[in-house]
Every structure is written in C-alpha cells, then in structure tokens.
Specification:
There is one protein chain. By secondary structure, the protein is an alpha/beta fold. It has two domains: 45 residues, no CATH class; 205 residues, Aromatic compound dioxygenase (Protocatechuate 3,4-Dioxygenase, subunit A, Sandwich), CATH 2.60.130.10. It contains six helices and twelve strands. The strands form three sheets. Strands 1, 4, 10, 11 and 12 form a five-stranded mixed β-sheet that branches. A five-stranded mixed β-sheet has the order 3-2-7-8-9, with no helix packed on it. A two-stranded antiparallel ribbon has the order 5-6. A hairpin with a 6-residue loop joins strand 7 and strand 8. The chain is elongated. 27% of the residues are buried. The protein binds benzoic acid and fe (iii) ion. The site of fe (iii) ion has 4 residues, from loops.
Length: 289
C-alpha cells in the first residue's frame, strides 16, 4: 500500500497481518492498532504529545526491576488490570479483584487460628469466616493465602524493617470450611507514585490512595483459584481506589468486640489479646467447580 491516508492506514495494517501464525494474536493486535489509530485521529495527536507518551514508557523501563514493575502499575492505574479481571469474572460466588504486586508464592504456613500480628504496630484484627462451594458445602483441601500491609502502611517487600514474609501466610482451611486468624487492621496507603505512572496521576488530578484491604487467594481442589480482597466499610478511599479494585460485596463491617468469649474458640491469642479488638467476618463462596 503506497497511497496511505489517515483513513486507510488501519485497513492497511490489517492487510499486512494476513499471514499471522495465530489468528487470536492477529485479531488482538489488529484491534489494538485500530483503537490506537482512532485515538490519534480523533484527538489529532501532536508529535509532542506522542513523544511524551513514548518518554513515559521509556522512563517506565528505568523504574522497573525485580521488585517493582511500572508497566503493571500503569495497567492498574488505567483500570485495565481491573477490567481484565471483571470481563473474566465468574457471575456466581464471591467476586474476584486485582492481584496487585505483593503476592508471594509458598509463604510460611499459618496454623488455623494462628497469629500474623505478633504484637506489632497497629490495631489487632481477628478475622474469621467460612469458605463453601456453590452448593454451600465446604471443599476439602481448601488453602487460603493471605497478604496485606503492616500497621505502618507498608508491605513487607517495601520495608527493610519487616521480615520478608511479614503479614503473608498460607492457612489450611478446616474440613468444615472455617478459618480464623489474628492480624493487624490493614491501613489505606498510596501506590508508588514517584515514577511516570505517578506523573500520570498528577496530570489527571487523581490521588494515589488505595483503601485499606486484606488480600486473599483461595485454592480449592477442582475449582479455579479465587483472587480477591476485602475492604473495611469505614475507609474513606472506597469510592476512589487508585486501581479500581473495590466491588460492593467485598466491602465489610469491621466491628470492635470487647467480649473475649465472642472470639473464635481456636484462636491462639484468645486469652491474651488486648480487648476490645477489631473483628471481621469474611464468608466466601468459591467459583463454580
Ligand atoms: C495492592 O493491592 O497493594 C496494589 C495493587 C495495585 C498496585 C499497587 C498496589
Ligand atoms: Fe494490596
């Protein structure tokens, strides 16, 4: 094609891809290029504006290493990570949400009823709940992976003062589907905003806050893993989460309890926790088997 025009370049792109070995890859890239072309045409993008976009991507590389990925952060802050999660979501069961960058594989086992808090800074929180399948029955062999930030707002990976697996754990759920553990109340915090993704937030007048949340990944034999997170209903950032992860059924009351007898019977710190203590009840329904 030699007589390209702004109107014909998109079809030319598609024509050039006729021999792509994978039809799905071709369709995705032709669609992506088509949307980008429309974006340029509709906004009559200037050279300086496109250079700024390329510069942001170039700087993203400089901010990316094995601990931080600025491209994933762009995806999160643009709402793309959340949208990919939502378009693939199961319509039944507990909604999924974004994974975020702080999940660790193979974290130490946290006994059911165990303690992640260990008296560290922040307000202790007792979490208990039950995980069932679509028929309301517990699934034998369910494993619950947990991760969250510490009382100072930082994840273990962001804070050299913390043990590398602090506030990360893997709990074998009881045969009746129940689980309990003590942790700290997670706190709202800002995503890293010192790179080009942060510049984008500032250019949009957005802030970098995520509401406090507790991440969970549930793996049950015969079920797809459920990746989700839960938010206290009193958090002031619920309606402007920087990464668009909040779903209404994932917002829960965190209640203060003064009566020790009301805490789960198998809680290891039941007799020693400073009362009153925050509690959250988290019941989950697995995706269809
Ligand atoms: C988080 O869940 O902690 C998170 C998610 C996306 C970007 C940054 C942090
Ligand atoms: Fe998080």
């Amino acid at each position: 094609m030699r007589n390209l025009t702004p109107a014909s370049i998109t079809q030319a792109f598609a024509d050039y891809c006729a021999n792509a070995p994978s039809a799905r890859t071709r369709d995705l890239l032709v669609s992506l290029a088509g949307h980008l072309h429309s974006f340029v045409r509709e906004n009559k993008l200037t050279q300086a504006e496109w250079n700024a976009a390329i510069d942001a991507l170039t700087r993203a590389t400089q901010f990316t290493d094995d601990k931080r990925n600025e491209y994933i952060l762009f995806s999160d802050l643009l709402g793309v990570s959340s949208l990919v999660d939502m378009v693939n979501a199961q319509t039944k069961g507990t909604p999924s949400s974004v994974l975020g960058p702080f999940f660790i594989e193979n974290t130490p086992e946290l006994p059911n009823g165990g303690d992640l808090w260990h008296g560290q800074v922040g307000e202790p929180l007792v979490v208990s709940g039950k995980i069932v399948d679509q028929k309301g029955a517990p699934a034998a062999g369910t494993v619950l992976a947990l991760w969250q930030n510490a009382g100072n707002g930082l994840y273990a990976q962001q804070d050299p003062q913390q043990n590398p697996t602090n506030y990360h754990g893997r709990l074998n759920v009881a045969n009746d589907g129940t689980f309990a553990f003590t942790t700290v109340r997670p706190v709202s915090y800002t995503v890293p905003d010192d790179g080009p993704a942060g510049d984008m937030l500032r250019a949009l007048g957005r802030d970098a806050w995520r509401p406090a949340h507790l991440h969970m990944m549930i793996q049950a034999p015969g079920h797809k893993p459920l990746i989700t997170e839960f938010f206290p209903e009193d958090d002031k950032y619920l309606d402007r989460d920087a990464v668009f992860g909040v779903r209404a059924p994932l917002v829960l009351p965190f209640k203060k309890v003064a009566d020790r007898a009301a805490l789960p019977a198998n809680l290891s710190g039941r007799d020693t926790l400073p009362m009153p203590v925050w509690t959250a009840r988290i019941d989950l329904t697995l995706p269809p088997a």
